[in-house]
Design goal:
Layout lengths: L2 H18 L14 H10 L4 H21 L4 E2 L6 H10 L3 H10 L3 H11 L9 E7 L6 H17 L3 E6 L3
Parallel strand pairs: 2-3
Antiparallel strand pairs: 1-3
Length: 169
């Protein structure tokens, strides 16, 4: 697993997490990326505010994804194998990545644009839980481009799509 893939997954997690919040598309009822949350989080997490926001939105989004996809033998953007979760956590201490992420989510349109740039051309999107591949696909950047495409389409169309991976073939 390369550092680049972990950083790409981290950016995607925060971007989709931000877009799914109640002030954007309302897929989950969190507000970790609003102005009000800055006032609350900044004094408590002055050096790790983005990490705190990521952890909060991850929990909110994971609940919705788990509800729709289920748990056990499946992974999704907001619940990954432990090594990937640890990589995401560690990467959110890197100032270059933090600045890169902050450039992705200042507005809803910029976040959607980021998703579009990470997407690949697809014709069939489906609705609801959508299997991308097995556990090996988690470590393939092309799988995450598919996930970006699915989330981008879902947000723009208003049809909920929940990409996931399984730990069996």
């Amino acid at each position: 697993m390369t550092l680049q893939i972990i950083e790409d997954i981290t950016r995607l997690r925060i971007c989709v997490g931000y877009l799914g919040e109640k002030d954007q598309y309302g897929w989950w009822q969190s507000s970790f990326f609003t102005q009000g949350s800055d006032a609350f989080l900044a004094p408590l997490f002055s050096r790790t505010k983005l990490l705190a926001q990521c952890n909060g939105v991850t929990q909110a989004a994971a609940l919705i994804h788990d509800e729709r996809i289920g748990v056990g033998h499946v992974y999704h953007l907001f619940r990954l194998p432990e090594d990937l979760e640890q990589g995401i956590h560690q990467s959110l201490h890197e100032s270059e990545l933090i600045n890169s992420i902050l450039g992705v989510i200042p507005t809803k349109l910029q976040a959607l644009d980021y998703l579009a740039k990470q997407s690949i051309e697809m014709n069939d999107f489906g609705i609801g839980p959508t299997r991308i591949g097995d556990i090996d696909a988690l470590r393939n950047i092309n799988s995450w481009h598919v996930a970006s495409s699915l989330y981008h389409h879902a947000l723009l169309s208003g049809q909920a799509i929940f990409p996931y991976f399984t730990d069996f073939s």
